[in-house]
Amino acid sequence: MAPTNQAAWLKEVNQKLEIRPSEIGKPGKDEILVRNHAIAMNPIDWMQQYGAYPPGPLPRILGNDIAGEIVEVGEGVTQFKKGQRILGHCTALNTDEPKHGSFQEYSVAPAFGCAEIPDNMKYEDACVLPLAISTAALGLFHKDQLGLDLPGAEQKGSLGSSEAVLVWGGSSSVGTAAIQLAVAAGYTVLTTSSPRNFSLCKSLGASEVFDHSSLSIVGDLTEALQKYEFAGALDAISTRDTQLNVAQVLAQLGGGKIALTLPATQEIPATVNVNMIIAVFILTQDKALGKAIYNDFLPDALKSGRIKPAPTADVVGHGVEHIQAAVDKLKAGVSGSKIVVTL
Ligand SMILES: NC(=O)c1ccc[n+]([C@@H]2O[C@H](COP(=O)([O-])OP(=O)(O)OC[C@H]3O[C@@H](n4cnc5c(N)ncnc54)[C@H](OP(=O)(O)O)[C@@H]3O)[C@@H](O)[C@H]2O)c1
């Protein structure tokens, strides 16, 4: 019997996702078709469903993060073959094409945004990474963002490195990816989280973790960062308050760059340079960076444990009919976990 594809469709903003069949997508040039076995939720999913941000044509299939098995490769794909287990960053947010959404059993993903995963890694763990990795990698390594050195094949020796990066929001999805990528690239990482997530941040390589709700946070971070050469900050949370805290730290250090995950507030001091990350640019505008991270770095880094699936997967159900509950659970708020549906 020919395979079928069930998908969770958004027909109207502010309405529940509707489960109905969708065509199985055909992979185009530099794309692969994947049978998804696990998908992860991201804040942009509920923002799109409930806030119409960013606006786009309807009906549509939302979702960014997949892990599964390759079913078919498109023209020009030489780095993958049918049957491989991969994680991938789907790009429907950018293309508006249903085949590029992750909220379905079969998705089409760009080969430069996919990485082979180790045999012993569960799909539900692997799927927590892609969008967070793209976001953190763009913020840390893109020349228009912090422009840091890329991680090489070997660990450069992170603890004790004289150059430090500040990651605000180390227990978030983007923050956990940023800690790991910056450490892999040889930087010392200082980060913030709630005390209950200090051990998570440390386990990923952060040298020091600070309570983000402490009244002395700006002074504490400034004092700690003064011991290093400052390489820049990634604010994974980027609310007005976090931006102003990070900007105050940088102003006291004499200036620097902040990579933001949300639009900048107006009140940033002039010595501080802020720039918003658009994660999908790693697969559209700077494919070389996408390839360097996903195809060249991640497969070995996942095998060796230099990059671990984080935050911890919280599997809410099996089957596309659980996606709506998963979106709603993320919208209600998470702390050091990633909401996942297995398929
Ligand atoms: N621009 C882009 O391309 C792009 C891409 C991906 C995501 N984003 C955006 O980036 C943001 C983060 O996404 P995500 O998926 O990483 O979020 P997430 O994992 O859902 O974030 C939850 C975490 O945020 C932490 N947090 C909340 N308020 C905090 C604060 N004031 N200081 C420090 N940590 C705080 C919590 O830490 P504790 O529980 O430890 O307090 C919690 O662990 C979202 O706004 C998302 O829309 C943007």
From TrEMBL:
Pfam families given in the database record: ADH_N, ADH_zinc_N
Domain (Enoyl reductase (ER)) ranges: 12-341
Keywords noted in UniProt: Oxidoreductase
Entry GO MF terms: oxidoreductase activity, acting on NAD(P)H
Coiled-coil segments on the chain, per record: none
Keyword Oxidoreductase applies: yes
InterPro entries, sorted: ADH-like_C, ADH-like_N, ER, GroES-like_sf, NAD(P)-bd_dom_sf, Trans-enoyl_RdTase-like
Family (UniProt): Belongs to the zinc-containing alcohol dehydrogenase family.
Name this protein carries in UniProt: Enoyl reductase (ER) domain-containing protein
Species, as recorded: Cladophialophora chaetospira
